[in-house]
């Protein structure tokens, strides 16, 4: 019962946030005198999807995550992503949507399909697939047996048809040779004798002396000195005051989206790093945040004070990064 109440509360909160953010989008678009068609072309959306974003509806989106992604792009396009209040509302919308989706079995399946691959099969579905595979294999085996037996029967029927033909040919009378007929005598065989060619005795070959190898002269070993181990280089050395450097000290998944729409999303290994201008960062998501070090110029960024951590996942944007940089 408590889960149902929480689900209803998250749905109501998500709907309220969608409507409120949609009104802000519509007002900002009208103030900037931009048409629906221009916005749709810029965001690679359909006009109906843009209207749904402004109305707080998800009818034109096949999944709620697609709606949230398009909403973020619309906010960034209109310059509203730097507003801390709007960012807080957007985060509340994301949290409420995830809680609402994950509270039901169909919601879990949608989450797996959207971000984690196909949902795991239950035991009943697995048994059905096993039965179907076994049945199809049995049908294939039966077809192979039928083909082989049919071939054998066909070959045996051909052998039985050939037997009477051979018997009829054996009953026919042979030709009779009369006394007047002169049997043809074969020509005498000509035998040819081949003489083996004379073999001359091989002349002895003078043995050539083999040169003896000179004894190897041992060369004295050359002493090599191992290079002295120096101190580890500073990963944040020579960093500009406007550049954000992301250094990975452990294996970590990260996604970086810049203001020009470029995306850098993959698994990074220890020792790799990313340099990007701070003003160009639109969204930065870090999967294993304890394995990452961030610094802008000489200012290290403490993710634990950002307020954007959900477990080990950090979801940062331009406004949060600017707040962390400020002394």
What are the defining features of this structure?
8 helices; five-stranded antiparallel sheet; four-stranded antiparallel sheet; single chain; 434 Repressor (Amino-terminal Domain); alpha+beta
Fold topology:
Blueprint: H1 2-31, H2 36-43, H3 47-55, H4 64-77, H5 84-102, H6 105-115, H7 123-171, E1 243-248, E2 252-258, E3 263-268, E4 273-277, E5 281-286, E6 292-296, E7 299-301, E8 309-310, E9 313-317, H8 318-325
Antiparallel strand pairs: 1-4, 1-6, 2-3, 2-5, 5-9, 6-7, 8-9
Helix pairs in contact: 1-3, 1-5, 2-3, 4-5
Largest sheet: 5 strands, antiparallel
Helix content: 40-55%
- The helix count comes to 8
> Quick one: CATH class of the domain at 2-113?
Mainly Alpha
- If classified by CATH, what would the architecture of the domain at 2-113 be? Orthogonal Bundle
- Low-confidence region ranges: 114-119, 175-183, 213-228
Could you walk me through the main structural features you see in this protein, from its secondary elements to its overall organization?
The chain has 327 residues and is an alpha+beta fold. Among the domains are: 2-113, 434 Repressor (Amino-terminal Domain) (Orthogonal Bundle); 243-325, no CATH class. It contains eight helices and nine strands. It has helices at 2-31, 36-43, 47-55, 64-77, 84-102, 105-115, 123-171, 318-325; strands spanning 243-248, 252-258, 263-268, 273-277, 281-286, 292-296, 299-301, 309-310, 313-317. The strands form two sheets. It has a five-stranded antiparallel β-sheet with strand order 3-2-5-9-8. Strands 4-1-6-7 form a four-stranded antiparallel β-sheet, with helices on one face. Strand 6 and strand 7 (299-301) form a beta hairpin. 15% of the residues are buried.
């Amino acid at each position: 019962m408590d889960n149902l109440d929480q689900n209803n509360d998250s749905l109501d909160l998500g709907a309220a946030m969608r409507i409120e953010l949609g009104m802000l989008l519509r007002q900002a678009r009208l103030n900037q005198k931009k048409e629906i068609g221009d916005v749709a072309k810029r965001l690679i959306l359909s006009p109906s999807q843009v209207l749904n974003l402004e109305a707080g509806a998800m009818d034109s989106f096949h999944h709620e995550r697609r709606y949230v992604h398009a909403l973020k792009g619309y906010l960034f396009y209109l310059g509203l992503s730097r507003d801390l209040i709007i960012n807080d509302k957007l985060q509340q919308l994301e949290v409420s949507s995830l809680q609402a989706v994950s509270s039901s079995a169909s919601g879990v399946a949608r989450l797996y399909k959207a971000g984690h691959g196909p949902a795991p099969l239950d035991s009943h579905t697995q048994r059905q697939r096993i039965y179907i595979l076994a049945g199809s294999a049995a049908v294939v085996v039966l077809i192979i047996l039928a083909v082989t037996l049919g071939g054998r029967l066909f070959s045996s029927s051909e052998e039985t048809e050939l037997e009477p033909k051979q018997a009829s040919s054996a009953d026919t009378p042979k030709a009779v040779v009369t006394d007047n007929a002169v049997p043809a005598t074969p020509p005498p065989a000509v035998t040819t004798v081949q003489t083996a060619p004379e073999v001359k005795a091989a002349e002895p070959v003078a043995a050539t002396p083999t040169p003896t190898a000179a004894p190897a002269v041992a060369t004295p070993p050359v002493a090599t000195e191992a290079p002295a181990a120096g101190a580890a280089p500073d990963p944040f050395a020579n960093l500009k005051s406007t550049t954000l450097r992301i250094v990975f000290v452990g294996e970590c998944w990260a996604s970086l989206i810049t203001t020009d729409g470029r995306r850098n999303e993959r698994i990074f290994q220890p020792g790799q790093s990313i340099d990007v201008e701070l003003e160009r960062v639109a969204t930065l998501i870090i999967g294993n945040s304890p394995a990452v070090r961030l610094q802008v110029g000489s200012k290290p960024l403490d993710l634990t004070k950002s307020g954007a951590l959900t477990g080990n996942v950090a979801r940062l944007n331009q406004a949060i990064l600017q707040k962390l940089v400020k002394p």
